[in-house]
Amino acid sequence: MAEPIILTDAQLESVLRGGKPALILLTTGDGLRGEFLTAFKQAADQNPGIVFARIDATSNPAATQRFDVGSKPVLVGWFDGEEVLRRNRPWGADVPLAIELLMAKVKEHQPANAQPLAMEKPVEKQPVINDKPVHVTDATFEAEVLNYDQPVLIDFWAEWCGPCRMVGPILDKLAKEFAGQVRIAKVNVDENPGLAQAFRVMSIPTIMLVKNRTIVFSQPGALPEPAFRDLLNQLIALEVPAKDTPQPTPQQ
Hints:
Blueprint: E1 5-7, H1 9-16, E2 22-27, H2 34-46, E3 51-56, H3 61-66, E4 74-79, E5 82-88, H4 94-108, E6 134-135, H5 141-146, E7 152-157, H6 162-177, E8 183-188, H7 193-198, E9 206-211, E10 214-220, H8 225-237
């Protein structure tokens, strides 16, 4: 699946002057809706005629100043040297509307016999099955874990943690074994203190299982490979009604 590109101040101008329409998300990482991120990523894969880009507003002051970005995320549509649209703290439903407005602007600039960019048909791709652990951050947790369409095992770990280094190769192996059934996610607690605090992670490694936005298991300590395999098989078979918001469970 094609992903939105990551831009910096130094690269922004080449996109703005590149001749292709662009949808640019400027964000500090706060206030992003999970359903928007999902729609934004899907649209990037389905619309090859548009540049989909993301800029970290905290480390790119020129872009932040140019587009007047505050603490909330901003979605900007750009074409032919001008801002076509702007959505503050966008929703998922804003993505197709933004594409429609952007392509209408493109159509105004096309010769009568030109084929609209919207008619470009992307090459059909086979679904990509991730067989490696996914590193999750405070900013990507909602999209990569809570809104993911499969159950997820989360490993809260740190570089300096000896037991974590023992667990790592086991989870690498199980990510391949359970690919397409369970996602293995890793959260570095030193780099993502917000998640560690939110889920009351007091020691590492802590293993957590999530299914349908519900935490069904949370336990500190390293486990042997057979115990991990049993947990994943139980997680797959477990029936869990969908929830809107996961509730942290007490550590055992």
